[in-house]
Fold:
Amino acid sequence: MAAQTPARRNRYVDFLRAASICFVVTGHWLALAVYVDESQITVITEALASIPWAHWLTWLFQVMPIFFLVGGYVNGLGWQSARGRGEGYGLWLAGRLRRLVVPVLPVLAVWTLIGLGLTGNIGFGSLRFGYEGAGLQMASQFALLPAWFLVVYIVVVLFVPLTYGVWRRYGMASFWALAAAAALVDVLALGAGWGLLGWLNYLFVWLAVHQLGYAWQAGGFASSRRCLLWAAGGIAALAALVYFGPYPISMVSVQGEGISNSLPPRLTLLALGVFQSGLLLAVERPARRLLARGFVWTATVLINGLIMTIFLWHVTALLIVTALAMITGVGISFVPGTVAWWLARPLWLGATAIVLAPFVALFTRFERIGMARRGAAPPAWQLLLGCAPVCFGLATLTLRGIPSESWPGINLLALGLPFVGAALVWFNPFERASEDSSAGRLD
Structure:
C-alpha cells in the first residue's frame, strides 16, 4: 500500500493523523496512576493530580486540535471531489458516517457483556461477579472516553457543505467569526455565570479549527513564515489566557480543578490549535520530502489502516492492565512522579501495547467493513436521522457510564441507540428496489 501511494497525495496529512493518535494513546496510558500508599491501600488516581508540573506536558499531548485540522483538510478535499464527480450530499455523507460509526459497535457490545458480568446479571452456573456501581461507572466512562470525539466529529461532518461554502465565500473571516463566538461564549459562561452556555463551544471551537483545515487545503499556509507567525500568535494568546485569565495550565481535565479547558472546550484550546497548526505546517515541506520514501511512510500507512480500532480500544486495554496490576501487585509499588515511577513507564506502556494488540487484530475488520461498503446511499434525511441516536447514545455513555439503577443494572437504551443509528446509516431500504428495477430494464 505504501509503494502504491500516488505521488499527488499529501502524505503529511496522513502522518499528522498517525502521529496524533500515538500521542493520544501515550497520553492516556500515562494518565492513570496505580500505587500502594503508606497505609498499604491501593490507590487509583490521575497522574496529573499527583504531578503538578506535568500539566505543562498537556500542551504537547492534547492533540485533538490536530485531528480537526486534518479533518478540515480531508473533508474539504473530499467534498470538493464529490461535487466534481456529481455526487450528492447523501452519498458523500454515507461514506463518512460508515467509517466512523461501524468500528464503535464492537466496543459497545463488549462493554455490554462486561457490565452484565460485573453487575452479577450473567455468569456461568453458580459463578457470578459483583461490582460496585461507582467503580463500573468510572471504568466505563474512561473506556468510552474516545466516543466523545466521535460525537463532536460527526456533528462537524454534518455541517461540511455549509462550512465549506462559507469558507469559499468569506475565507479566513469564517474562522475569525467562529473564534469571536467562542470568546463570547467563554465570557458569558465563566464571567456571567451562564455555565450551560459553555457547551456551545464544542461547536465554535472545533468548527474554527476545522476551518483552518480548509485554509490549509486551499494553500493558505504554504508560507513557512506565515505559519510561524500563526504559531507565535497562538502561543502568545494561550500564555496570556492562562496567566491573566481564569484558565488552568492543563489542557485536559484534572480532578479537583474548578475549570476545565476541555470539558467543555474553552478559548484556550482554540489558541492551542492555532499554535500547533502553525508550528506543524511550518515544517510541512521537509516532512513531505521525508515521507516520500522509506520506513516512516510505511509506518504511517500501517497506523492509519488501524487508527479507529487503536483509538477506540486503547483505554479498554489500559483498564485490563490496571486490573491485572492490582490483582498481582506487579508494578504498583512506585509513587507517581518519582524517578522509579517514570523509569517504570516504558514497561507499563509496553505491557498495555501487548494487551491492545489482540483487540486490534480481532476488531480491525469492522474498520475495513465501514470503509469498503459500497452501493446506493440512504437518503440524506435517513442519514441525519441515524446520527441522532448514535450521538445521543454515545454522549450519554461518555458522561454517565453504562450503569443504571433499573434492571439489568446497565443502561441498555444508551448502549443500544448507536446500533439503531448504525442500521439507519448502513441500510438503504430503496437499494433492493432500485436493483430490481435496473435488472428489469436490462431484461
In short: The longest helix spans residues 339-372. The two ends are 40 Å apart (CA to CA). Residues 11-428 form one domain. The chain has one domain: 11-428.
